[in-house]
Model the fold of this input.
Amino acid sequence: ATFSVVPSPKVSDTVVEPYNATLSMHQLVENSDETFCIDNEALYDICMRTLKLSNPSYGDLNHLVSAVMSGVSTSLRFPGQLNSDLRKLAVNMVPFPRLHFFMVGFAPLTSPGAHSFRAVTVPELTQQMLEPKNMMAASDFRNGRYLTCSTIFRGKVAMKEVEDQMRTVQNKNSAYFVEWIPNNIQTALCSIPPKGLKISSTFVGNSTAIQ
Done:
């Protein structure tokens, strides 16, 4: 599995970024089993719009990337009610070998000062992690359809509540899910939350919007 930072024309500080991406894409298609796509432009947008940072540093961008990496690898590091390692993720997420490029998202994303004042609920987490503006790749899932999805919840969360939310998401947004893979949202649950949060969720989506 790789976490690959894809270059963006809007946010670029290296002239050879497009060449690096073009030349490495073939290797990712052929030799990687799972590629989590992250994009500097999307990270900057999240920092500016959601986290309300006027001048994001690379440290701020890396903090977002580390949140997603931590969420995806949670089940490898902690015991949980419903675990999902990278192998299980690949089995559930990759319908065809070459279609292994995933969009990722994380919730809750709030400005640093607002953490202690708001209790976040599972419906709020679900809504926020599925919003296009919170995806860490500047690709709008509404331009394609989800083949498969995975959600990883951390903290004291009821399994029934998570499953109800996922069912609601699938019923409400059925136009954005392919009909030939039924029940294509996988869930994982770990009772240990990330540092500084009571509950969190990480989203991984295999969407045709990534081309």
About this structure: The chain has seven helices and six strands. Residues 95 and 186 are 13 Å apart (CA to CA). The first helix runs from residue 17 to 31. The longest strand covers residues 146-155.
